[in-house]
Amino acid sequence: MFKKLAIAGMMAGSLAISAAASAANTWQFAYVGFFDEDNWMFVQDRTITGSFTGSDVNHDGIIEKEEITEFVLNGTDYMACSSMNSPYNYCGTDRFRYELGGKLDFSAGTAGTDPERIYGGGYVVRAGIEEYSYRFTPESETRSGAYLWTDETRFSITSLSSGGVTPAVPEPGTWAMILTGLALVAGVARRRRNEPLQPCQR
User: Fold this and answer.
1) Residue 91 sits in which domain range?
2) Where is the Ice-binding protein C-terminal domain (predicted)?
3) Residue 15 counted as domain residue
């Protein structure tokens, strides 16, 4: 009986995890507090916000760039804008990876030049590192509006499709608690079954 209960519990847990991972979901995230490179000071209320929509198609607990349909950063969808790219203009997500319930990593931005590639500029955000704008001319290359991640930068993320709680794959310890509970239930049931029947008291 315990074996059947354990197998049933594991199957139910696996199905629940697979369903949560496969369903398309939207997450909102924010980074707050950056070092202002231009003014050489930490700005506590400087914020970068965004969202992304996708699903863990291959059930590995990680959402990669190929598994998202939307990635919005400070109001720009860096997945959708790539459809307007040309030899002289670029907009897109170079890198994306989200470990369910854990770390978010990405790189996105824009770039543009004239046909001769003499004048140009762009905007870059690399999670965990920096956000900045840049321009170049034959005479100079400048970088401005740069904000750097620090140990004081705060990160938060919420899942809109699960009431603010990001689905996560249970850790081994969680499975151990589930199986222990099933074992206790099975043990009580077996003990009651083996106990001799007591005569009715009148």
Assistant:
1) 24-168
2) 168-193
3) no
